[in-house]
Design a protein that fits this description.
The chain has 7 helices and 6 strands; from the N terminus they run E-H-E-H-H-H-E-H-H-E-E-E-H. Strands 3-4-5-6 form a 4-stranded antiparallel sheet, with helices on both faces. The protein is globular, with a radius of gyration of 21 Å. By secondary structure, it is α+β, with helices and mostly antiparallel strands. Helices cover about 40% and strands about 20% of the residues. Helix 4 runs antiparallel to helix 7.
Length: about 210
Amino acid sequence: EERDFAVLGDISLDRDFRGRGISKELFKFINAYIENNDFFAFVMPTPIASRGLSSTGWVMLDRFVSYVLIFDPAEKLNPYLCTRKLSSLLGRLYRTALYHYLSTRKIENISLQCTDSLDSSLDTLWGNFPKKDIVLGDRSLLSLHLRYTDHPNFRFSLARFMKGRSLIGYIVYRNDGNICRVYDFIADNENEICSMLFLFLKHQIKNQD
């Protein structure tokens, strides 16, 4: 039996209007719409949004787990070693070994371009992307601008994966000190996802040295 499935996307409320119960009323309105249309629905909220959702009947079924790759273990090693120089040296050796491991991956005809701007090629990729039988939020150029270009607090970068002159995937990310956070990742061919990740990780390690 086919049924509609709703995905609750971005949740945002102006700082000046927080603490007045507005978000709770918004969630109640969403609940009524879902119930009246017989939807299933899910959301991956922030801790603050979770409190409002829980107070209006939403139930946590599972926790979201982030995947983490350590680029430089020096800070983690500091408490266990006698000097920072030693932990720094071991961290550098680790990064070098990781970079060489990533370099052993045979990657054919895919190149990486990093930029801070979005263009119409993203819309072309999204238009051609197969969307049947998967749960996926809008990745049109307009939506990406709203999410990332116009973000009031953070500046995001775009890693573009090219095959010849064609865009075949991208990663939206933000470098925060020595931490790289990935916010969006899309590829038109799942068989090339690992190659894209290897290229991106090599780029990040090289830039941190």
